[in-house]
Specification:
With 322 residues, the protein is an alpha/beta fold. It has a single domain, classed as 3-Layer(aba) Sandwich (Rossmann fold). The protein contains nine helices and ten strands. Strands 1-2-4-3-5-6-7-10-9-8 form a ten-stranded mixed β-sheet, with helices on both faces. The protein starts with 5 loop residues before the first helix and ends in a 5-residue tail after the last helix.
Length: 322
């Protein structure tokens, strides 16, 4: 076969250069960013990923909206499943992924740990005072989430001022713990159907808190004690004590702005620095993600009068880290 002449190779090289230069100079500079390692160009939708932390492989689901192209930094919302659930369960129950598509943020659904190796079943979080194998084995879930956030920031263009945590039940409890131990990174937390352990020490930094709880919750009773439907027979603290801890920690006004209707009661405790504490009581709602889907077939009905996901995003959107 006849080999191309040096002149032919020169012409091919020049043509290729003319084709590449406009792409680098134009198109929003996306190719230039990708060549510099600043852009991850994933397929939109939800995928399962893993991360090894401390020699242990951990997993999570990540939902990337179709609008993400790496050209600008986007918010990150960490959504934590309840005890015995999974990231897939949390995604379905909260309907956070459609919200991520509509608002342009990345949603991540971490998986806890459980007794069945390599299976996303019967998973729990070590929230300090609960729950399951994660607490009994003293799993370092705070360390996992800190490492996960760092890893995600290396892969995607995450806005460091808009990283948030929310979750249901045991997932809400770990959100409270992250609010204490990861408030140097997180901008705000929004626990649902959970109570946190009232700590002896304040959080690393003040952090806005949005609490949502059903007044008919028999797993985690709003007034504390042992819930008639509680799987772990633990004495829970009254929600008002947990809320008061955060009100004090964030130096909020002691007198709230109150709005109430047939579906909800909202108490808004303003902070001079923007580290507000909101407490929303969903009337007639049990142990559920209000406005979402049932976590399992026999779970309490979430109702349709309070849309937790919409309300949480509204709170997050107006509370970036300062």
């Amino acid at each position: 076969m006849r080999r191309p002449s040096p002149l032919t190779w020169l012409l091919v090289t020049l043509i290729a250069g003319f084709l590449i230069l406009p792409a680098i100079a134009g198109g929003g500079g996306k190719l230039r960013d990708r060549l510099a390692g600043r852009v991850n160009d994933p397929l939109p939708g939800t995928t399962r990923q893993t991360l090894t932390v401390g020699g242990t492989e951990r997993s999570y689901l990540i939902h990337v909206p179709a609008s993400y192209d790496g050209s600008s930094a986007v918010p990150l919302v960490l959504m934590f499943h309840g005890g015995g659930g999974s990231g897939a369960n949390a995604e379905r129950m909260s309907e956070m992924s459609p919200k991520a598509d509509a608002e342009g943020f990345i949603a991540v659904y971490p998986n806890g740990t459980g007794p069945l190796p390599n299976q996303d079943r019967l998973l729990t979080w070590n929230a300090g005072h609960c729950c399951g194998d994660a607490m009994r084995n003293n799993i370092d879930d705070v360390g996992f989430i800190r490492a996960l956030i760092v890893d995600l920031q290396q892969q995607y263009r995450i806005d460091p001022r808009r990283i948030y945590a929310t979750g249901m039940s045991n997932g809400g409890a770990i959100s409270y713990r992250l609010g204490l131990e990861l408030s140097d990174v997180l901008a705000a937390i929004a626990p649902v159907a959970a109570v946190g352990q009232v700590a002896q020490q304040p959080p690393l930094a003040p952090i806005p808190v949005f609490i949502i709880h059903g007044d008919a919750d028999e797993n985690v009773p709003i007034n504390g004690g042992i819930g008639p439907k509680g799987i772990e027979r633990q004495v829970r603290q009254p929600l008002k004590d947990v809320a008061q801890f955060w009100i004090n920690a964030n130096d909020c006004d002691t007198t709230p702005i109150v709005s109430e209707d047939a579906a909800r009661r909202l108490e808004q405790y303003a902070s001079p620095n923007g580290d507000d504490v909101w407490v929303l009581i969903a009337k007639g709602i049990g142990h559920a993600w209000p406005g979402g889907q049932k976590g399992r077939a026999e779970a309490d009905a979430p109702g349709a009068t309070v849309a937790a996901t919409d309300l949480i995003w509204d709170f997050f959107e107006t509370h970036p880290k300062h």
